[in-house]
Amino acid sequence: MENEEQTIVEQEVEQVAEAVTGHLRKLYDWFYSNFLTFESLYQIAAIAATLFLALLLRRRVKRLLERLSNERTLGVTVQRLMRTASAIAMPVAWLILVSIVTNVFAHLGLPIEFLRLANSLLLAFVVIRTVSIFIPSHYWSQVFSWVAWSAAALNSVGLLDVVIGWLRETGFSVGPVQITAWAIVKGLILIAVLIWGASALTAAVERRLQSAQKMSSALRLLITRLLRMLLIVLAVMIALVAIGVDLTVFAVFSGAVGIGVGLGLRRTVENLIASYTLLVEKSVKPGDVIEVETANGPTYGEVKKMTTRYVAVRTRDGTETLIPNEVLISNVVTNWTHSDKTSRRRIPVGVSYDTDIDLARKLCLEAADETPRVLSFPKSACLMRGFGSSSIDLELRFWIDDPENGVANVASEVLLLIWKKFKQHNIEVPYPQQDLRMRTDVSIVSLPTEEDGSEETAEKKF
Prior knowledge:
By secondary structure, the protein is of the alpha+beta class. It has 4 domains: about 10-160, no CATH class; about 170-265, Helix Hairpins, CATH 1.10.287; about 265-335, SH3 type barrels (Roll), CATH 2.30.30.520; about 345-425, Alpha-Beta Plaits, CATH 3.30.70.100. The chain has 14 helices and 12 strands. It has helices at about 1-35, 40-70, 75-85, 90-110, 115-130, 140-155, 160-170, 180-210, 215-240, 255-265, 265-280, 325-330, 355-370, 410-425; strands at about 170-175, 175-180, 290-295, 295-305, 310-315, 320-325, 335, 345-350, 380-385, 390-400, 445, 460. The protein has a 5-stranded antiparallel beta sheet with strand order 6-5-4-3-7. Strands 8-10-9 form a 3-stranded antiparallel beta sheet, with helices on one face. The N and C termini lie far apart (about 105 Å).
């Protein structure tokens, strides 16, 4: 049995080896018949010569195109084209030279197959790079450039139809549906185009909503998110239908998807739902100053960005803390600017029992009034809160309207001024004091000193 299995494996390996050898032999024959000929060699030499001249002329061509890009009479679109062409000055110069050589060879009746191929590839490269400038996203621009140039290169060498035929023959079945590799490629291209269009449409709508001054930022963000999600789902469904996939097939996977959401994607779904809850309730929105208790302690800062998974809070340290949306829903959040940016701060102050309380309160109020960020209205207040174990407890209350600039720093400024004023008026900030009462007699023994050398001890009872 093992010998039979080894024989089958050996046969499979031999078949694969023969197929690979056959393809390599065909490739060698094609290379030998097309490249190792006199007609091919002088065309390759002409292409190499034009490349050398293009490298020498690229700086002049670039300066010429940059000069044309600064001509306002040409229009904005032409100026952008000239700027793009200046960025690829060498391929542009090479294309011009190859086109000239191709026409000369054709006029002389010489073969131009390789020259025409080089001319087609260079022209495709220049056209694709020029068209890609109208795609705002750098990522999608790069994807378009690579896909389009690959298709143009295959078409130039006559292999595009061969590759498409092979993709159509390669596939698999999902129930009654036959899915080929060519259908997948078409679907991916269609999805990419539709998603790009959805993103462009969403960006246009978002720019339009930015001009609506009466609409809150949270509502604008909610509308753009829902629109983007709807358009992306619609783009995927259209692409699947276009490649011949019956959407009812996905009903089979609904149970598995539900289990996956319930187990592995539970946190993701919670954050997604929490993000829309925050936007609808407007409890937290971009620009708010919030304080929330996290695993690493309280986080205080300004909300910079809200996504479907987290809220980015820029702290006073200059770092951005990414807080999951479900944390903001389940924990207590202090929003310093929810309905009004004006907020009150409280600072405890302790003075000794022999202090003039009216003077101490007056000095505290003066310190608050002299701090630039403290508001003059509502007015500050200094209250006497009680008799402490070591001091008379005062509390200074004042108002600010810029909590995004920090609250601890303004409290520090006020305390510093209070300290200076207390020093000027000899007002003491007492240390904590405790009285010790002895309930039994205690003897204190004095040890002998080095001066008298006496070993006698003295006792004193209390």
